[in-house]
Amino acid sequence: MKIEYKLNDKFDLIIFIPVILLITIGLIAIYSSTANHPTASGNFQKQLFFVVLSLIVFFIVYSLPQQTFKKFTIPAYIFSIFLLLLVLIMGKTVYGSKSWLSFGFIGFQPSEFAKIGTILALSYWLTNNDRDINNIKDIGIALIIGFLPVILILLEPDTGTAIVFAFITLFLIYWSGISLFGLFVVLSPGIVTFMSLFGTVPFVLSLVGVIIALILFRKDIFNSTIVFVINLGASFFFDYAYKLLKPHQQKRIAAFLDPSADPLGSGYNALQAKLAIGSGGLFGKGFMQGNQTQLRFIPEQWTDFIYCVIGEEFGFIGSVIVLTLFLIIFLRLLKLSSLAKDKFGVLIIVGFLCLLFSHFVINIGMNLGLTPVIGLPLPFLSYGGSSLLTNMILLGIVLNIYRNRKLHA
Amino acid sequence: MNDTGFGSVLRARVIFAVIIGFFCISVFQLFNMQILQGKTYTVKANENSIKPIYQVAPRGVFYDRYHRILVGNKPTFTLRIIPAQFKRELSPYIENILGMKPGYIDRILKQTQQYSPYIPRRIAKDVPFNVIAWYEENSDKLPGVDYVVETQRDYSYGVNASHMFGYTKEIPPDILRKKKDEYMMGDEIGFVGLEKTYENFLRGEKGVKYVLVDSRQKIIGNYKNGELDKPAIKGYDLILSIDKDAQMVAESAFVDKRGAVVAIEPSTGEILAFLSSPQYNLADFASVTPNEVWKKLNLDKDKPLFNRATMSIYSPGSTFKMVSALAALEEGIIDTNYRTYCGGGFQFGNRFFKCLHVHGTVDIETSIEKSCNTFYYQLALKIGIEKWSEYAKKLGFGKKTGVDISEESPGIVPTKEFYDKVFGKDRWPKGILVSLGIGQGELSVTPIQLAQYAAILANYGKTAKPHFLKGYVETKTGRYVEIKPEYFDVGISKHTFDIVRRAMYKVVNGAGTATNIRMPDIEIAGKTGTAQNPHGNDHAIFIGFAPYKNPKIAIAVIVENAGFGSVAAAPIARDIIKAYLKKDKFKMEQPRYLSKVSDFRKSKNEN
Q1: Closest CA to A118 of A158, A162, A157
Q2: What SS3 state is found at B540?
Q3: Is B15 in CB contact (< 8 Å) with chain A?
Q4: Pairing of strands B237-240, B62-63
Q5: Scanning every residue of chain B, which has its alpha carbon at the shortest distance from the alpha carbon of A299?
Q6: Distance from CA of B9 to the nearest CA of A (A)
Q7: B577, B524 contact by CB (below 8 A)
Q8: Mutation target vs A (from B10, B30, B40, B85; most A CBs, 10 A cutoff)
């Protein structure tokens, strides 16, 4: 994949054009799903407003001097944490979680903007010259930076967004060159915990796996014991935390493990979403012609289930086009990460990649019935101003790094 | 594996593989769903979807203490519109045939437009059968219109007792927001009275039927052969402590009077009769209440919506003399040997407080029997404000009785602190106390407090919180569950009560103020009162209990602006007591004001 830079030396159209196409497709789908809706029919206009606003903000961010971001890192992170605390105290409760702050008629989600602060802060910490990513203390601090917002967001509670923050943190640590053993220490508790969801036997088997891995790593007995205890502790902690979850959240996990258990409750959306997409066929039923969409079998479809609208009304062709546009963006971001010479810039780019990709995987996964129903918007397509604005700001930062890449060459 | 540094090629490749991998999985899944299984999904989507149809549960029925129906249910037709299928141009026809104002349907549809257009909206309840017949003939020309059989309250059992039962109303949006787990738009909810207090018992469980509908919302069959369907479960039937006969006598007696009646079984606190007059007609509230009816009720100067029995406050007048008597005797301030002279009044400072007659030498029993004010003007001064208000409160005044109807006023018992606040510490004129001694002044009581007071007197201070509910019948099991009353004892000695009760006996059976209600076979004890009313004629009050030796009923009757208690209130009390204690005899006598004799007989024959 060798690319000539002369044409778009300053501005990366390979990433910008797919983004604009996705936003346009999103607008079409939002229009279709809200046009006949009694309370959401104004959403198209609102989204259009945010598209224009975020494009303006994007170009401003893109044109800033590159040093700006490093200067902004620490204030941005502290401000993010402040907003996340503020939303817990005076947030507006929407669908059972306190994730909205409103100023007069404008409402926004601090967890969205915290993504920028957290990615910047982690990138900054992990690329400082005297950092040793395999030092347990440095990993610990990186984990604290990343998991402080995770905890605050879990308190709202907004499980989906918290998962995304956790992914970003782990991914940036991974990218920074953590050793295989270090990666194992960080990841294995998560895997063991996940296995424990499926019952005692998988749980014990995964613990046996951990023991075997520890033997293979040939670490001393002290370190191995600590890692094993961490694993055990994490799964018991999870078991405890699971009981603290709201009944509807527990139901969702149960519905994922056995989707047919509750076709009228938690599994309802997933079932309806599958019907919508599946009935789209090769070419789809046509714009504004999807009966699932137009008859509103899926509540709030323009947010987390926007992909169904495309699946139903534009069929396999439309659905694959959307996937392909995302694929281009992901691969291009991966490529850009190797072009930037500054480690700080590289981590911001892969952080953004991880952010988009985890939203993509969870959202597409739940639309296609591959993952549990976790409420997360599909970047650039779903209705929602905060999310669009955040993604466009991050895109602005990434293209800014791209524009300035040669200064560090 | 040696390449483990920052952003190494290996790490990038892993990520590349993950991205491509998920892309491939997604495309494969899409291919599987949309191309391979596309047809199956299309069929299912067209047959979509599972739709719940809810059935309203009939509310529980109210029975009296002898299990005679007081309020029942009856089937009724409700006309509904499904907005998504309804043609707006049909509105005028339907409005016309139902006698609605033009624009009525549009207004309802507008009010509920935040809900799914496939949820039916109730347009008219209690629709006459000829309209249903018209609909049946023309249903193919009326898309989106249907009707269902629902139940509504049936008030044709001879009692109205509007303030006791209260009514239900379609749940207002603000309550719906708070209780959206339990109620849905269009559900009825108990709004006042017992319908409100026992809403959770009465409302039952809504039934649900899951059906499959196609994309045009046509029902195409049952979901899973009705496995998940739940039938509606009727609410619990409530057994009230009310005696239907006594209640009907009370209602007939008050047809064109204002006032209130509360009768209580003194040993249990069970309410036997309960009336606030004027009433409103409960039948007006059985289905949708027209705005004109609301307006008329709200503007009526007699305030028929106001529950006088628990909320209206009156001066208790002479009926309060027993409070002073009990306090003075129990505290040892006077005994039965204490006498005072009544020369037609009492000079206190520069004011002369009048008595009705010149009573001469008066002891405690005569003071109640003849209702001598002079005696109590002086006695109040002896007792003092502190003890006096302590006993007034002991006997249940100045606080809510806690009856199982939420609309209740606590009344007012003035205390030393109260007057200190008004006049400054210890600077208040003692003449105030003189007025309080005969139940006038700042003192205010509710009829239900007076009835509770009569029950306390009847049962030597031991009674229970006044209440309507004796028990309920669980619909599923048919099991009768009894409600235990909350007993209390005011803690005054039997000896003290004996003296006061004996005096009350003489009020009716001696040379007292209510000898006009004396009966040969039922010994009533009581006390008349005349409450001064700043807005017009005095209110007539009577409290009492019977039979004297073993009381089964205690009662308070207030007739507004009717003058003397003995003339206007006591005979009503007597008739209610008679109706409750001597049913067979009463049936033969039939008092002149019993207008609904036929209903009354009918209900008697049912049992």
Answers
A1: A162
A2: strand
A3: yes
A4: parallel
A5: B116
A6: 9
A7: yes
A8: B30
Look-up of token digits 């709004």:
B191
Strand (E) or helix (H) holding B75: strand B69-81
Whether A248 contacts A266, CB under 8 Å = yes
With CB atoms and an 8 Å threshold, state whether B210 touches A264.
Answer: yes
B493 touches chain A (CB under 8 A): no
Contacts of A272 in chain B (CB under 8 A): 48-49
Confidence of residue A216 (pLDDT cuts 50, 70, 90): confident
Min Cα distance A56 → chain B (Å) is: 30
Among B5, B27, B40, whose Cβ lies nearest the Cβ of A177? B5
Give the β-pairing of B462-464 and B487-489: antiparallel
* pLDDT given at position A263: 57
**How far is Cα A129 from Cα A343, in angstroms, rounded to an integer?**
10
DSSP code at position B205: B
Among B1, B26, B185, B215, most A C-beta atoms within 10 A, so best to mutate, is: B26
Task: Name the residue with higher pLDDT: A193 or A407.
Answer: A193
Q: Chain A residue with minimal CA distance to B115?
A: A38
Terminal CA-to-CA distance of chain A, rounded, Å?
A: 20
pLDDT for position A133: 78
| Shortest alpha-carbon distance between residue B14 and chain A (Å) | 11
Whether residues A281 and B8 touch (CB distance < 8 A) is answered with no
Please name the residues in contact with B293: beta carbons below 8 A apart, sequence gap of 6 or more.
B284
B419-475 tens-digit pLDDT = 888 888 878 888 888 989 899 888 999 999 999 999 999 999 999 999 999 999 998
Name the DSSP class of B256.
T
B residues 203-232 near A, CB within 8 Å?
210, 215, 217, 228
Tell me if A334 and B40 make a contact (CB, 8 A cut-off): no
Please give the mean pLDDT across all residues of chain B.
87
Q: Are B528 and B356 in contact (CB under 8 A)?
A: no
Is ipTM over 0.85? yes
Q: Using an 8 Å Cβ cutoff, are B271 and B242 in contact?
A: yes
Q: Which tens digits make up the pLDDT trace of A67-113?
A: 889 999 999 999 999 999 998 888 777 766 777 887 766 778 899 99
Backbone angles phi, psi at B270, to 5 degrees: -70, 130
- Asked if B86 and B145 count as a contact pair (C-beta separation under 8 A), the reply is yes
Distance CA A142, CA A95 (A): 32
Of B1, B4, B48, the CB nearest to A177: B4
